[in-house]
User: What shape does this take?
Amino acid sequence: MAGYHVAVVGATGAVGQEMLSILQERKFPVRSLRLLASKRSLGKRIPFRGESLEVEELKRNSFRGIDIALFSAGAERSKQFASAAVKSGAVVVDNSSAFRMDPKVPLVVPEINAEDIRNHNGIIANPNCTTIITLMGLYPLRSSGIRRIILSSYQAVSGAGAWGIEELRRQTLEWALQEIKNATMGTDDKAVLRPEKFPHPIAFNLIPQIDVFLEGGYTKEELKCLYEPRKILNQPDLQVSATTVRVPVFRSHAVSVHIETERPLSVARARSLIRKARGVRLHDQPEKAKYPTPVQVAGKDDCLVGRIRKDETVPNGLWLWIVGDQLRKGAALNAVQIAESLLGTTPG
Assistant: This one.
């Protein structure tokens, strides 16, 4: 029987579940599949291609006979178990931040730098979701020489994990129930939206903090948006600055991006280049209220780009609005595409 022996680490998580869905959708040549997770998920069953597969506890000896291991269980688990997978003969595609800036580990978006995959030593890193979505909109414009990027991201709560979705859902319901009570009782009480894991209420609010603050006032998430594009684009001197914001949206990230290019780039030329690019679609008719929104891309593979306009305050400035599903292209899909590129397979 042809195909590959595949393991998914973090199979019960949001990204792990998305990986399983994408493996099926793209008819990845899976000969056997091993589902790995923490001890608390032991014994759960997950459907895959008409079968019901049991989740196994992740251990160092879990990778015997595995060809490809897709990791999405957090940086600490990757640091703990990725080396064991490599020693067992597997190639690891890691979705965490554990190895992204390791100079010996390729950091890959297949549409942009698939050639870097051949330099792997057993581990290939998946970039941060915001980095992927941003660069998907920008890579078609590289011929003009991108020298500076300033971005502000508007990131869905599912990027924080299942608990982020639950916290937004709970707070929204609490607000709605209080409004119903006020209408019924003739009162005017305010709902108390209690944050549990986010530092502030997320319903009807914005939180300009994703991950921890570091010296200099930037968050860890913002520095990922600085260092990762330099590595992926092989531009160590690329100027990047970022502000990352959590917003009350369940799924899909949006990024407002300003770029400066070395050579003039017209709006018409930018639109033409994006129309021809893989994995990204132009959606840019603002006069008809046609521009990307998170709802449009949820569950979709391609990233959308719109609101393309000149910045008249600098010689070669351009603004773009880029939106993508961070669970798919921002995480699971990109990982599966890396595996496809590694093995020389094509979807379907």
Summary: The mean pLDDT is 97. The two ends are 17 Å apart (CA to CA). The first strand starts at residue 4 and ends at 9. DSSP finds nine helices and 13 strands in the chain.
